[in-house]
Amino acid sequence: MSTQVTFLLPNYIVQHATGGLLLGDFNNWNAELGFPLELTEDGSLQTTISLQPGQTYQYRYLLNDGRWENDDRAHSYSAAEGMFIENCVIHVTEQAETVTDTPVIKKATPKKAVAKKAAPAKKATPAPSVEKADLTKIEGIGKQIATLLNKNGILTYSQLSKASAKKLKEILDAAGPKFNVHVPASWPKQAKLAAAAKWEELETLQKELKGGK
């Protein structure tokens, strides 16, 4: 029998996002199969899905403002293979469980018959799509570095603009000597202009740069 698991991302992590997707091992990290997150009255996001008891799953949240976020109440965390990030981990138990500092796990029970007309089913919320930007438009970023950034959860100009130069350098250093010679100091500034479609300003800035520096 499957277990109903409620995933809840608190409002202090959600911030200004209004929706998103739950992605993980249970849907092969495929955004097209992601579980839509519903916004609650207190500003948190949540969704309930069926999982097999006795199994362990890794997961993360992809919000509709482009951010990838982790649940700070996950059971544990695991480094993502080949990436400079950690995934949340949940251990689905055989028995019903309610834990205040972890996602709430409730055992599925048959619904009681109700002697009234069932309400019309709500239409499923369309899954927000995150379209990858061409990061090679940023001076200093080639196809291989763009692929490396994508693997580390940086898919859009907005995400790149919010990444610190220190974090970007850590990603490059972790990828080895082929990448750690690059200096990403100007990438967030360039990405901010690209995200705002200020292409003329970006072109002017890039004329002053050499290899992204």
What would you say about this model in short?
The chain is an alpha+beta fold and 213 residues long. The protein contains 6 helices and 9 strands, in the order E-H-E-E-E-E-E-E-E-E-H-H-H-H-H. Strands 1, 2, 3, 4, 5, 6, 7, 8 and 9 form a 9-stranded antiparallel β-sheet that branches.
Topology, number of strands: 9
Task: Give the low-pLDDT segments.
Answer: 96-116
Q: Main beta sheet: strand number and arrangement?
A: 9 strands, antiparallel
Q: Which architecture of the largest domain would the CATH scheme give at its second level? A: Sandwich
Outline: elongated
List the helices and strands and how they pair.
Blueprint: E1 3-9, H1 11-14, E2 20-24, E3 35-39, E4 45-51, E5 56-63, E6 68-69, E7 76-79, E8 86-91, E9 104-107, H2 143-151, H3 157-162, H4 165-174, H5 187-195, H6 199-207
Antiparallel strand pairs: 1-4, 1-9, 2-3, 2-5, 3-4, 5-6, 5-8, 7-8
Care to describe what's here?
Strands 1, 2, 3, 4, 5, 6, 7, 8 and 9 form a nine-stranded antiparallel β-sheet that branches. The chain is α+β, with helices and mostly antiparallel strands and about 210 residues long. The relative contact order is 0.13. Residues about 95-115 have low confidence and may be disordered. It folds into two domains: about 5-105, Immunoglobulins (Immunoglobulin-like); about 135-205, no CATH class. The protein contains six helices and nine strands. About 20% of the residues lie in helices and about 25% in strands. The longest helix is centred in the C-terminal third of the chain and has 10 residues, at about 165-175. Strand 5 (about 55-65) and strand 6 (about 70) form a beta hairpin. The radius of gyration is 21 Å and the shape is elongated.
